[in-house]
Amino acid sequence: MLPDLRYSVLIKESAAFDLIARQGARVDKGMVAFKDEVSPQELERIRAYVIHRANEDKKLETATP
Ligand code: HEM
Question: Which of 19, 21, 33, 46 gets the most CB atoms within 10 Å of its CB?
């Protein structure tokens, strides 16, 4: 139902991430616009967290047993 953002290419692009998460570019697909709830600064912190989580998982996947 919901995309796992750790695997989304959009976390690499601040502007594209904002377009979808705050400005509602995918409202027609069920992704609501969070512009009234989340500030641009907060969204950048969320994006940084998701990138951090993606990197953590990548480390686990590539770790030798
Ligand atoms: C702060 C929280 C959230 C952020 C930052 C966020 C961000 C995003 C982003 C960047 C995408 C595009 C992913 C891609 O195409 O690779 C996406 C897709 C989507 N999100 Fe969210 N999202 C959030 C919360 C939610 C919530 C609470 C819902 C549901 C109530 C939701 C529903 C969806 C859906 C259904 C899609 C797929 C849209 C499509 O098929 O193109 N999201 N979200």
Answer: 21
**Which protein residue has the closest C-alpha to ligand 1 atom 34?**
31
Atom of ligand 1 nearest to the CA of 34: 1
- C-alpha of residue 65 to centroid of ligand 1, in Å: 34
The mean pLDDT of the chain is: 96
Q: Enter the pTM of the model.
A: 0.92
Residues 31-57 have pLDDT tens digits of 999 999 999 999 999 999 999 999 999
Which residue's CA lies nearest to atom 35 of ligand 1? 30
DSSP per position, the chain? ----GGG-GGGG-HHHHHHHHTT-TTGGGT----TTTS-HHHHHHHHHHHHHHHHHHHHHHH---
